[in-house]
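Just wondering, can you check both lines?
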Amino acid sequence: MGIITDIYQYLRCHTGLLMAILAVLVCLAALGVSRLRFSEDITDFLPLNANDKANMELYGQLSDADRIIIIFEKEGNADIDDLLNAVDHFADLAQDMAPTTQIDIDAYLTALDSFYARIPYYLVETDYARLSDLLSPDSIDKRLSDAKTVLGIPMSGIATRVLVNDPLHLFDNQIADLKALSVGIDGFEIYDGYMVSKDHSRAIAYCTSPHGARETHYNSTLVDSLKSVCRTVSDENPNVNIRLSGAPVIAVQNAQRIKTDSFIALGISAVLIIALLAFLFRSDLRGIGLIILTIVFGWLCGMAALGFIHSHTSLIIIGIGSVITGIAVNYPLHLVLHSHYTADVAANLREEATPLIIGNITTLGAFLALLPMASTALRDLGIFATAMLLGTIAFTVIVLPQMMSRKQPASSKEPGTKDKEQGIKNKVHSPLRYVFYGIFGISTIALAYIGRDVTFDSDLSNINYMTASQRADFRYFEQASHQDTLSTTLYVAHRAGSLDEASERALSAHYPEGAEVHSITRYIPSVAEQHRRLDMWNSFWDQHREPTLNLIQQSAKKHGLTPVFTQRFMHIVNHHYTADKCDLASEPANTFFRGYYADNTQQTDYPSFSIVDRLSVPMHEIDTYLLNIPDSFTPTDLNSKVAGILSDDFNYLGIVCSLIVFLFLWVTMRDFRLALTAFAPMVLAWCWIFGLMKIFDLQFNIVNVILATFIFGQGDDYTIFVLEGLIRKRDTGQDILPQFRREIIVSAIIMLLGIGVLVFAEHPAMYSLGAVTLIGMGAVVLMALVVTPALFALNEKITIKYLKTLKNRQN
């Protein structure tokens, strides 16, 4: 490209101007970087709209995702006493972490008293018809007679407290509602206050993280402390296995595994890449510095673009930036390596600028395809990659040439290059090439067939790092929670800016007739609704209070019950009630209504209060319910939405990247057959990638799908360089293809060393990155170096034959 050499010649005489422009750009980039704030939230990668993301956050709150579960399991000859002794020992050692190892019966009874103390706020019209029937003289006498009998039988403190608060059983329906609202761990029961599995093989305790489920930095300290206590208790109770589970533990474990795998991979790759570069540039160590300087400038541009567009982004993006670095390093690497063969910097630019810029633009097109995607993090990645590659190519073709040495290189060819090239030519023109191309063709067809059903895995649990015992615990709790396979739970969220508003919205909700609804709506009435209910209460008891209390006193005396027994009930009936604002943090809401509301007063993403109804819905009708009930969701529904969007995005990415790359190649080369020659190797590479992924049981996921754009970027760069070398030889007789081929191989080796070493990682997501990189890079390099020359030769034969035919016709 002549304009690039003209810019080079101009800036060579105006170095001060170049340095001034560069200084201004670096200062602007630094300003953009300073605006950035980072998040470690993996949900940034999920392609959910604001409402679905709010539902996912809400579900995490309802299901106590911030709880760390401590599991105690019997081993050998241990009995239930050994199990509970281990729980007590754990509670003593972990006091500072405030674990819950037993149900606090006293606190529960206090909450129950609070519930009865607010009973007038909970009754609606239909309840009063039942109350009237239960206040007949015969009914009161029978209830108190039964109470006398029951009091003579040993029973739990909870049953006793229910009886003294409501000896006439007027409010049994409300107590039944409380039991139905109970949200606990299925398959477990209360045994002497402990939470024990029904077969008494396990006991559990839990500890609530004050930092939430995703703050791995802070949770790691808490998890390490709990693990230390577990080890101590296990040593002293060898027949009890103690381990941790829960979302905070899994999140911390994943973060630690990623850091460990990354550190090991980084150490190995850094040593190998430095050794490779030191060998390649053993007589020109300055070249290594120039490559690093170019990449640093590109990184600044990418980060600055994110900072100026929006100040908040995922920290994971920066980690994935190492993949983009693998593409960006190609640009300075090609220019610096090529300087070993071309003495003049301007000549070097003339030979390298065209394939570099064409390759850069097609790669940019592939990454720009990320911008319309639903995932915020992937859109940010598209912005980062585009800005970084633009900055890198600009620095490579404008700034870097001014810094390169203008001395004559020691040799314009590697020792023995000519002999090597002649050997290669002899092999290419050998009859064995037909055998090779035959095997290659059959292999491509076979791999394309094998890989036809490679799918996108949207299940995030498959890229979570969990130990074997944690996966077993996960399956155990999942099976315990899904004993009813014919129905599922539908969540309906009523969100508003205040609790009163949310309550009013929940009260106005209408559900299909016959639906089994679990809701706290009637127990958290708005102030206006409280006034209406208290009016009904006062009106009812103004009519029934005096005769009812007289009958109770007479019947109690008759059956030998002291006045103390009926004192609590008398207080409920005689107390003067006023409307007040519901407090979700106090009793009884804090004990009985957890799992049915979320208080998000500190967040601004969605309104402050959420009241959630739970509907038990037949599995075969769930889609109908989701369609007809606004603001409803299920965890499976949210996962299905993610799966559908990610699958669509994956298909979109493949189609759009292909179209962008092919159309630009066609426009740039102005020759359809040449564009097809450059593009076909990438199509064949994907046949190999899909086939090999199927053979090695690999799937695309939300992490390694990013490699789709990366592979397109690398593939078209390599193909364009090979094609440029072939065209240059055809048009000028200058054979620079061996140098280009060497640069491609060096670039590929650097990428394999940089990311491919992750194939040794233990974390599933990291492993998938390394494995797909190995397969993808191997495929695109093979296609660029083998298929491109063959297709180019075929294209030349077709062109020559066409020209001869045309000439014969003219003659």
